[in-house]
Fold these 2 entries.
Entry 1:
Amino acid sequence: MPRVRFAPSPTGFLHIGSARTYIFNWLYARHNAGTMILRLDDTDVERNTEASVNSIFDGLRWLDLPWDEFYKQSERLALHREVAWAIFGKGLAYRDFTPAAVGDSEKSGAQGTWLCNPGMRELSREESDRRAAAGEPFALRFRVPREQAGAVVFTDAVYGEQSKAYADLEDFALLRSDGMPTYHLASCADDADLRITHIIRGQEHLSNAFKHQLIFDAAGAEAPTFAHLPLLMAPDGMKLSKRVHGPVVSVTTYRDAGFLPHAFVNFLCLLGWSPKNDRERMSREELVELFTLEGINRANAVVNFTEENPFDAKALWLNAEHIRGLASDQLAAELLPFVPVGPEKMRQITPLIQERIKLLKDVQTVADFFFAEKLAPYDAAELVPKKGDAAMAKRVLERAREVLAGAEFTHDGLEGALRAAAEGLGIKAGQMFEPIRVAVCGRKTAPPLFGTLEALGRETALGRIEEAIAKLS
RNA sequence: GGCGCUAUCGUCUAACGGUUAGGACGGAGCCCUCUCAAGGCUUAAAUACGGGUUCGAUUCCCGUUAGCGCUACCA
């Protein structure tokens, strides 16, 4: 039974790339009847924030893909230290007494790669113990066997066989001088302890995996299978970041704009993964059924957004697809939070706009005239039908006033009455409908007229026609 | 700089070494039609470059170029 984990560090809002990583882990777990573990990797006390923790929970809960187990890394420090000292005990790590402040960026200068602080890895055990006993602060570093000719080797489920010469790996830290574990140590210690079988994460960790393999080996644990995911990029080729790309990288932005959670999940799945059978729109069950590590691509994927169009066109299309696929009543319920109207009215309006919105939020602009007490001001010229004039518009509206006063106020009743009226006036049906549509909706493009009139009701419709006639006088 | 990874239409992607290089979104056009959508049909659009290997390379190998990632006592 596979056990997978998503291990975000709570140092910012939930990123769409992180959401995708979570989704892939979740799908892998469900596809293989495994366990999905959420673990907060909060060993960086300096940068952790409560707001970030909330953002992560909010985002993940919205996706509606529940996890099975939850852990907080900060509550497992004893385990991490135990693993670190066990590695030290085997002689595979050493104390580095170099003051923390010195030479961070200078280490890896243009000269070449920084590998270790000279002198420290050669310190005798006695000397090391003596200085530690004397209270001198130190970091614990992994002793990479760079004097050996070999390499660290592992097989990535996505990228295949990976190897890196020992000589190219630096002596990375396991424990900081304040005794806190580093990410590398804590992550591996926890993965081993939680019996994680597959580490599915972003490709930015591919290089780190060599270090992790070393830690698992040193700790005497069998390393999980690594599966690295291609990264999500911005159209400018840069890694997505809130700083430069704004809120489009945050999951909550999608939620607030009215993406259906599953449509969002569906979209993210198509970035860097393919079922290889041209399927695009898929239900959750289908995704679980189709998801495999073999389907994961190796090249980075760009999320195609611009300043004018903050959402990828394909994301929008998929959302519209899923909206259309919803039962009308269900969609009405989803729409409710976006608009000041009761459930009854919403259910009546929904069928009229279901095929016309890409985002739930679009209901605010597409259906505004249903909720507005008073129509937004429009130009009287809008009332004039194609190949007609103001006089025709007025004639149409005056006739409509009579017809609507008496007609049966249903889709079919209205259509019959209005078409007959057009014939009576000797004009095309379109010329009849156009002025009425504008009078009633305040604009030329709107949902189908008869259903709209029905939903609006006789009183409102007549009132708006009256106002339009006044505009023409 | 060192190391690692990647490279098919604008974007997401498909293609046991043998296809007219397929699909989707978006674009253009047509049809349908009370406007707008939705739907249907048609269309433009890609194998980064150079060498190999092979009867034959999108596919395998090498190089170049470009991009990304890692190179912290961040994760």
Entry 2:
Amino acid sequence: MHTTVSHYLDRFIDKIETRDALTPTERAALTGLPQKLVQTAARARIVEEGERPTHCCTVVEGIVYRSKVAASGRRQIISFHVPGDMVDLHTVLFKVADHTIETVRNTTVVLIPHDAILRTAEDHPALARAFWYDTLLDASIQREALLNNGRRDTRARTAHLFCELAVRLKRVGLVNGASFELPLTQTDLADALGVTPIHTNRVMAKLRAEGLIAFGGRSITIFDWKALVAIGEFDTTYLHLEGPSDLHL
Amino acid sequence: MHTTVSHYLDRFIDKIETRDALTPTERAALTGLPQKLVQTAARARIVEEGERPTHCCTVVEGIVYRSKVAASGRRQIISFHVPGDMVDLHTVLFKVADHTIETVRNTTVVLIPHDAILRTAEDHPALARAFWYDTLLDASIQREALLNNGRRDTRARTAHLFCELAVRLKRVGLVNGASFELPLTQTDLADALGVTPIHTNRVMAKLRAEGLIAFGGRSITIFDWKALVAIGEFDTTYLHLEGPSDLHL
DNA sequence: CGCAAGATTGAAGTTTGTCAAGAAAAGTGG
DNA sequence: CCACTTTTCTTGACAAACTTCAATCTTGCG
């Protein structure tokens, strides 16, 4: 367990600071949070549904997702998480995890104890607000996913998901030109979109045949951003990129 | 705008207190929140997607839902809200509403200014935590909806939704025996379940024919709770009924 | 009473799922 | 670096779930 200042949380802190400036004290409180660096294998379970987690998980490198499983065994991926995301900040107030957290490939994450986060929130109202904001944004992304999967066909869903991931990865500097690494299998994508992998494959093949995207080798290239945005009805309002309310107390 | 103590928030406060005891001071801070009582007509829009709300909405009587609309015009209902629910507590930190809030029938709600809520949260860390918890539970319910709509067939989805509403209404004393008022149209239900009203009608008709439920006259009766729970794979873990983490600072 | 909204039913079409098999790519051990 | 194994991707044919269009019936309400 590190207790010295590290930079593993830099992306997370940067994200918070684009929303609301922090004082040096507040920033120090974040960088000083106890951190346990963990390197995982591919398909590692960080938290399992029903467990009682004691730490929050922040992505340093790689992709992490949260999922729930129906009685039939069919899996629904709830959300994907990119570097800088605190994946399960909400577990600080829940006893039992209501979903599983898994890595896609070799991934680096940082674990932070719940009690340290709660103490930080109590000592620094601005940080309490920042944590709260982060979980609210997470919920907003879930609402859009509910609309996406409920009221758009698979073609639009797929386009929407790629647009969202492109924007979120771009914000942390992980998009090169029109390409970004996305080491997900088509089964992963299917489980996020609520369809079968076979169907996902056909829909993606059509997008590729139309020259809109390319994929393979664990990465995605978007050739026609405007077209993909139109197909996916992608509107960034729900990402609340403009930052939080101007209300300062 | 009331500034005297009222009991419109009693159900909300009760809900919070089942999770974590409040001090008299904290309770007073909640009951003393400025409140604007609003009686709405049926199908009234309280907040519209894209607006910049300045108040939070708490349900006093009736049913309220949040929805988003796809470009095709198809509507997705994100969640239903029962008396005692603070529907859009998350808007305190967002500038722009990412969804619409509507009432089903004549409904009573209470509006509370954002700045009052934020000030209360800043002055009372326990209340900041309680507000945070409330929005986290909301997000957990959304995750279950994502699983429900993505990985269960319409029969299971419908059963699950009725089970959830029964539990949530029971917690606020709005279930009589096996029946509860639910003044939703089948189109409302369809928009929540991500299917067409015609299909919803057929699925519900089958549940009725099997003697599991009755509906009509704006209310639902569940004759066979165990069977409905089994069909809907309903497990209350995601409702976090056990209260928040035991961690007290 | 009569209108309007919602519920119900039928028939036909579309999207998506299931089963099955082969091809390509990635990982593994020598 | 190659041969082998496993995973992932891709394609075809068929089945099931769900949608669409259309019409009728019922109910709530002024």
